[in-house]
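Data deposition worksheet. Section B asks for the primary sequence of the deposited chain exactly as it was used as input, without tags or linkers unless they were present during the calculation. Section C holds the resulting structure in token form. Section D is free text for depositor observations; keep each observation to a single sentence. Incomplete worksheets are returned to the depositor.
Section A, Depositor: J.P.
Section B:
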Amino acid sequence: MESMEKLREYAALVVKIGVNLQKGQTLVVNTPIECAEFARLIEQEAFAAGGRDVVMNWGDEEAARIRFEEGPEDIFAEFPAWRRSFFMGYAEKGAAFVSIAARDPEIFAKAEPRRLEAANKAAGEALLEYRARMMANRNRWCVVSVPTAGWARKVFPALSEEAAVERLWEEIYRTVRIGGKESAVEAWKKHIAFLQRAAKFMNDNAFASLHYRNGLGTDLTVELPEGHIWAGGAELAEDGVEFAANMPTEEVYSLPKRDGVNGTVIATKPLHYNGNLIEGFSLTFEKGRVVSYRAEKGEDILKGLLETDEGSSYLGEVALVPFDSPISRSGILFYNTLFDENAACHLALGKAYPTCLAGGEAMDSVTLLQHGANDSLVHEDFMIGSRDLSIIGQRKDGTEVPVFVQGNFAFEN
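Section C:
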């Protein structure tokens, strides 16, 4: 049984640093039923912090698996109106949202890809306004994770189920800075300060483009739009309250210019998408758009992702993560984007964060597009960082500045 002391410290961290819940505010917790114990601890911490109410939004991925495998074809193009009303209703009332991401990486491996694609598109269209609110930081939100048996078995297949779950707990605590000499809250404040220094380095240089290269074959140039902003560690919500959207996080990120990406990039870790894994893949871009791709496994899933809508074959995020980050040093492949994206530099297909463009929070989708920000129903991160990754930044005047040398920030070297 996991240490109750550590569980409570983790729950308190999510409430105090993650969503930074304020007195009188409602918290919505999106959680698999397998994570009920931790979700209830978050509930207790939220009320202790003065929260007005805590609403549980339970999910059952095993029931979802049965539905995808055995349900009639036409139901997957539908998204219940009451579910949209649930999310939008609480969002409009200023609620904060915690999501516990702990899916079995291959839970939907036997489901027809077209069913997954249809369900994903239906949800994306129905929740377009809600997701836009989150990405514009109109509400505070945080994604965290705790072990489930199926996920732990995938990460540590050589261990018994009990031992695998225990080991995954240990690794998660390490990534969220629980169990050190100082409290997790204090450790996070220092970590956020470092990431904000890295973001300042990028903002001070105001690069026009970044050129990525490594020995695997990545050779990619990413242009950055006028007025782009780098962020990391913590952000300010619309109400002016600071929060940490991801726990763990090791990234500083911005948005690329929609039509300014050219070259080829090789993924360095599998992409977990729609309950399936896409492995050994590469993408080639011309004028921002993916013009060719390949994958050793899950190519049909990758094809479905790229064809979700017009914007899903363009990039919406560029993120920098030191190769020597704690998650990378662990050498563990988590098969969970929340963790794997924080082990390596990554890019994201799909929607850009409006907060990464000066004044972007106040722009509509058409205006954002005019300023170079991509729009899409999806936002999917994939990892490209490596030990030998080199990134050269080019300023507007043509001056070149090393950003990454041998996989790590140059400003620290």
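Section D:
Residues 36 and 92 are 26 Å apart (CA to CA).
The mean pLDDT is 95.
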